[in-house]
Structure formats: structure tokens, C-alpha cells
Design brief:
Blueprint lengths: L1 H6 L13 H12 L10 E6 L2 H7 L15 E8 L6 H18 L3 E6 L11 H9 L5 E10 L24
Antiparallel strand pairs: 1-2, 2-4, 3-4
Helix pairs in contact: 2-4
Length: 172
């Protein structure tokens, strides 16, 4: 696991290549095995591999989502705020786990923040996605995870560049 973390980087450039169905099934399993507070599992996920829908989804933010158009897969991560007051945390755990599992299968990914972001000056990114995918209003959209085979090489962050001052022992 630590080797995956040492090599982990956000990937925004993808090969024009589909993800094999068995790998899609593994990604689904990873999401559904994610831990959640009180085992409430307030999350639901929409897997998007249709190129026209990915193109529309890539326009969900004013900037920072355009690369989704070239991804093989976008996973819309939703949480039911009525089911759990910590849906954001539960969805975040599921998101990073699916990214790590994707990396373990030689794919790259990038987290696209949706919650508290804007599609344009009048419409939130969340409202845009809810409308596009017919998502019920009680389901909040936290993020979209882009996944695909990387068409760019990025080295992991060297250990010397880690911000060790961010770690405290026993007190501040």
C-alpha cells in the first residue's frame, strides 16, 4: 500500500482506451466495500462511460473538469444527507479507495471537486450534474472521479519534499 501512495499522482491526461469490464467490476466492489460511519452507507455512485455524457460532465465546473472528456470513466459520487450527517466524509473515503484500487490496476485518476463549486455564475456544479443525470435532490453530489489509462507520466513526490512539519507528536 505504501508503494502505491509513494507513486500516487493526479492524472488528467488519458489514453483513448476502454477499461476492461472485469476492472469496472473491481472498481464497483471497492466502492461498495468502503467503510462508512455506523455502516450507514449513505453513498451512491453513477458510472459514466458514454463519451457524450462524459463530454457534458466535463463542463460541470467553470474550470478544472475539462479533462474528464478524455477519461474512460467518470464516477459521480453522491451522498444522502438525510441518511448520515457525515456523508461528506463517507463519500471521501469511498473516493480515495476507488482511486487507490484504480492505481493498483495501472490506471490513473483525478478527484474533481463538485460540492461548493460553480458550473457558471447562476448554477452550481451540483445542480448541473443533478439535472443532467436526474439525481434526486436529497442526494448531494460531492465529487466526480475521472479514471483511465494514463497518457502522461508523473513521478511521485520525493520523500524529501514531504511536509514533515505537518506531523506533531503528543501535542501541538
Amino acid at each position: 500500500m505504501i508503494e502505491l501512495l509513494r507513486k500516487r499522482r493526479s492524472i488528467r491526461v488519458y489514453e483513448d482506451r476502454k477499461i476492461e469490464p472485469e476492472k469496472i467490476e473491481i472498481l464497483k466492489e471497492a466502492l461498495l466495500r468502503s467503510p462508512s460511519s455506523r455502516n450507514r452507507n449513505p453513498w451512491e455512485f453513477i458510472f459514466v462511460d458514454n463519451k457524450e455524457l462524459l463530454k457534458k460532465l466535463s463542463k460541470s465546473k467553470e474550470h478544472g473538469s475539462e479533462f474528464l472528456e478524455d477519461a474512460a470513466l467518470g464516477i459521480i459520487v453522491c451522498g444522502d444527507e438525510k441518511q448520515s450527517d457525515v456523508w461528506i466524509e463517507d463519500c471521501s473515503i469511498a473516493s480515495i479507495l476507488v482511486q487507490t484500487v484504480a492505481q493498483s490496476m495501472d490506471m490513473g485518476s483525478c478527484w474533481i471537486q463538485i460540492r461548493n463549486r460553480m458550473h457558471n455564475k447562476n448554477t452550481s456544479s451540483e445542480a448541473y450534474i443533478q439535472d443532467l443525470f436526474n439525481i434526486p435532490k436529497n442526494m448531494k453530489v460531492g465529487s466526480v472521479i475521472s479514471i483511465g489509462y494514463p497518457a502522461e507520466k508523473k513521478a511521485g513526490v520525493p520523500k524529501e519534499k514531504l511536509q514533515l512539519n505537518k506531523i506533531k507528536m503528543n501535542c501541538w
